[in-house]
Design brief:
Helix content: 10-25%
Distance between the termini: 38 Å
Order of helices and strands: EEEHHE
Shape: globular
Strand order of the largest sheet: 1-2-3-4
Largest sheet: 4 strands, antiparallel
Number of domains: 1
Number of helices: 2
Structural class: alpha+beta
């Protein structure tokens, strides 16, 4: 399952698309032109592919615990 959020920052009139894969917790955020907000919300991966160099992927840190002591 994927969570898609469309965030508007009114002070800067900036629109951000945030997408998170709930199974892996991997996510990405990209800025979207306000006129494209609804289309980006409906097709987030298409917008991410178009703007591949400008989005950031966030992956959760993994902690390995070695209990063999």
């Amino acid at each position: 399952m994927v969570e898609v959020l469309l965030l508007w920052h009114p002070k800067s009139d900036r629109v951000e698309l945030a997408v998170r894969d709930l199974a892996t917790d991997a996510s990405f955020h990209i800025d979207i032109a306000p006129g494209n907000a609804l289309d980006a919300f409906n097709h987030p991966y298409a917008y991410a592919a178009r703007r591949e160099s400008s989005y950031r992927v966030v992956r959760p840190e993994t902690t390995v615990v070695d209990g063999s002591r």
